[in-house]
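*** Protein under study ***
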Amino acid sequence: MVVPSCRCAERQGFVDKRPDRVRRRPAPQRVRPSVHRILDAMTGAPAWVRNARMDFLGANRLGYALYSELFTDQVRPANNARFGFLNPRSQDFYAEWESAANDIVAMLRSEAGRNPFDRNLSDLVGELSTRSDTFRTRWAAHNVRFHRTGFKHLHHPIVGDLDLTYEAMELPSDPGLNLLAYTAEPGSTSEDAFKLLASWAATQVADELSAPLPVTDEA
């Protein structure tokens, strides 16, 4: 995988170029054991933890099962932005892909405004801008927003269509991390699909999805 340098990204105007600050690569973010225990205790709803650049950092068994398509990519940690713009499977997984793509770019743009010297973030934006015309066009629109609740319409390759409500909750002791949980309307076909997903998840090993692979998105 070819990842453009920060200098390349600067030439394209995707990162802050002010000379008075130096971009630094932050320490890798981790999910604390107590948060893992909370995730594992949530047995009836998919839940996962992400950071501001949309890395998939941890989940419960249903969370891994719901987002199993992200792990078809070989880069770890799995990243929702990279999946959304560089993996063709995302257009099947996100039933409303255009809306999902806009939300992904808006969240990255918002984080770039809050933390313009995050080297990992600028590298990700540079890579997506170089490899995806669709991302580059949306990035130039300068849309910024962050939804803490809403609806997701997904098409899972095993259980089919899912219409879900989600809540995004900040982890106050872990700046930049959010826990997301999903529910289905009681009595709906999506709730039935959740039950099928749980049965499928029971046959899968979450550790196989989250197992470390060579990290190729960092210098």
Observations:
- The domain at 33-204 is CATH 3.30.450.180 (Beta-Lactamase).
- The radius of gyration is 17 Å.
